[in-house]
Specification:
By secondary structure, the protein is an alpha+beta fold. Helix content is 38%, strand content 13%. The chain has a five-stranded antiparallel beta sheet with strand order 1-2-3-5-4. It is globular, with a radius of gyration of 21 Å. The N and C termini lie far apart (60 Å).
Length: 341
């Protein structure tokens, strides 16, 4: 099938040679699109007489940079697999392509599992309460395993470190691109976060959007962490606070249901993380405030784009008042629990 006939990046033309080079004598039987990350294309590749594989490819026609840099995603997955400290699909092969017309891609092992976010994802029936509980606690333990990886020890020493000042500035810059009604009082939490920066800890591999919806689970266990578009090398508490915010519907403005039965408490999930980490987590209050600031910035950006549509999504517009509430909450968190230095 030619690229113009629904084959982005000439994937179906490229795959037979790539697969044969990886495993001589193996042929491609079918290529099926999968739901995947927001900034790359994901496919299930069915092989003749072999287990299927998954291919992630950068979108054709765009520079494969930042969250579209799929080879960087492959690199971190390979590093984590080598460490043996967190569940990630092994990388099988990569291809640099000739971007932007022929985008880079990588293939990984197919991991069978369910990706379901209890607060956000629609479903005719929720998993059993015990399943929700065990998966969230397993996710907390897997996150601690991920954060135990030293970037230097797994070949990621050349990855730039993102500091907390840069982290706050990142979301502040997003607010500066949206209309005033989408950023009510954003300077107050931005300044408060800068004024209360916690003592740093060693940077590690940070997923960037760690939650149950970006993991694969089988039964009660987590079998793979997926969707690595946003990974960074920075303070692990960025991930931890974000993950903990998905345990309570009252903390999630996009939640489509109340906190379901079985969901562990924040204290229980944090205890599971700290048990594997081997130490208590300090200054998490600052990161909780940062998470609210980040949520508000994302909501503002989404609504800026939503308003440019011919038919804006009313559900997105309904979240606009939440932006101000999140920003106010970030300030209150910092006032109520000053960061320990």
């Amino acid at each position: 099938m030619a690229e113009g006939d629904g084959d982005p990046g000439g994937l179906r033309v490229r795959l037979p040679g790539l697969v044969a080079a990886w495993r001589p004598g193996t042929s491609v039987a079918d290529v099926r699109p999968l739901e995947g990350g927001k900034s790359s294309l994901t496919y299930l590749v069915v092989l003749e007489h072999e287990t299927p594989i998954v291919v992630k490819m950068a979108p054709p026609g765009l520079p494969p940079v930042r969250n579209r840099d799929v080879l960087r995603q492959a690199r971190v997955q390979q590093a984590i697999v080598r460490s043996g400290r967190a569940p990630v699909a092994p990388v099988l092969f990569t291809d640099a392509g000739a971007p932007p017309e022929v985008p880079p891609l990588y293939a990984m092992s197919f991991v069978e599992g369910e990706s379901f976010e209890p607060l956000l994802d629609a479903a005719p029936a929720l998993p059993e309460p015990s399943t929700i509980r065990h998966r969230q606690l397993a996710a907390a333990r897997a996150l601690a395993g991920l954060h135990s990886i030293s970037p230097e020890a797994v070949g990621l020493a050349d990855e730039p470190e993102v500091g907390l000042v840069e982290e706050v500035e990142r979301w502040t810059r997003i607010f500066e691109t949206v209309p005033d009604e989408l950023r009510p009082g954003y300077r107050a939490p931005a300044d408060a976060l800068m004024a209360a920066l916690p003592a740093p800890v060693p940077s590690t591999v940070v997923h960037g959007e760690y939650r149950l919806g970006n993991l694969l689970a089988r039964g009660d266990e987590i079998v793979a962490i997926i969707d690595w578009e946003l990974w960074t090398r920075e303070d692990p508490r960025i991930d931890l606070s974000w993950f903990l915010s998905y345990l309570d519907a009252d903390e999630q403005p996009s939640a489509i249901r109340a906190t379901p039965p079985g969901m562990p408490t924040r204290h229980e999930a944090l205890a599971a993380y700290e048990e594997i980490a081997g130490a208590a987590v300090a200054a998490l209050d600052w990161f909780d405030a940062h998470a609210r600031f980040k949520m508000a910035a994302i909501a503002a950006l989404v609504n800026k784009h939503n308003r440019r549509r011919d038919r804006p999504d009313p559900e997105q517009e309904a979240l606009v008042p939440v932006i101000g509430r999140l920003l106010d909450e970030a300030v209150r968190m910092l006032e109520r629990s000053p960061t320990r230095r």
